[in-house]
Specification:
Blueprint (H helix, E strand, L loop, with lengths): L17 H13 L7 H9 L20 E4 L2 E3 L2 H11 L6 E5 L5 H7 L4 E6 L4 H11 L5 E5 L12 E10 L4 H4 L2 E13 L2 E9 L5 E8 L17
Parallel strand pairs: 3-4, 3-6, 4-5, 6-7
Antiparallel strand pairs: 1-2, 7-8, 8-9
Length: 232
């Protein structure tokens, strides 16, 4: 098991001033992962990640690990959230679809970067908690819905951008249909131990073009088709 997935066994952590810990997270983890966008860095400094971390793991809020959140799910490492946000390249006027709300941390970062976020989560009990966390941070430009895989009714479609908060085996073509003619989707695609963050750019004629950006391994999203194994 990868080191950054071992938060379950780390139930203690040296006491550190939260402001210092957040500064260290940005400077030592995130900047070194080629996240240099000033807007993204400012959001990471402004939004208190601890507010989105389960109580049992508060001391690990700024650590370079995936944090358990229930149902076998995990928060992504901070540097992964930051890199995804940067590479999606949101504009203030855009509407976004997020698949995988989780604790709402990445949802909040998206909402602070665009006009509106529709976030879909397969675990219904995550939604009210995540909603409350965003509202406590004064964020209201979002809608959350319970659905697994391809949303049954994606409020706000078509979208300027779609972000997948977990990995998938292949590009979900059904999601591409929810994009505007020149919209884009950012997803981590592949199988362990080889997954690639891929920007899928939809073209005006309905086709799409893939841009492979960087390698990372993150947990699977539920509800999307896996590759069929070949048998000889």
């Amino acid at each position: 098991m990868a080191l950054y997935r071992m938060a379950e066994s780390m139930n203690s952590h040296p006491t550190m001033n939260p402001q210092v810990a957040r500064f260290n997270m940005i400077e030592q983890q995130i900047r070194t992962w080629q996240v240099l966008d000033k807007h993204v860095l400012a959001l990471l400094d402004r939004l208190d990640r601890r507010m989105f971390v389960p109580d049992a793991y508060q001391s690990l809020a700024y650590s370079d690990i995936e944090i358990p959140i229930g149902h076998g799910e995990h928060m992504l490492a901070p540097k992964v959230d930051a890199r995804l946000l940067q590479d999606l390249g949101l504009q203030a006027h855009e509407n976004v679809l997020e698949i995988g709300t989780g604790t709402g941390y990445l949802t909040a970062l998206l909402a602070m970067s665009c006009a509106h976020v529709t976030s879909v989560e397969c675990h219904a009990d995550f939604i009210p908690v995540a909603r409350q966390r965003l509202e406590k941070n004064g964020i209201s430009n979002f809608h959350m819905a319970h659905s697994q895989g391809l949303p049954d009714n994606a409020q706000g479609a078509p979208f300027d951008a779609i972000l997948l908060g977990g990995s998938v085996a292949t590009v979900p073509t059904g999601l591409l249909q929810l994009l505007k003619p020149t919209g884009r989707m950012l997803a981590v695609i592949g199988e362990e131990p080889m997954m690639q963050t891929t920007l899928v750019q939809r073209q005006a004629d309905g086709s799409s073009h893939d841009h492979i950006l960087w390698d990372v391994v993150i947990p699977r999203l539920h509800g999307f088709t896996e590759k069929t194994a070949f048998h000889f």
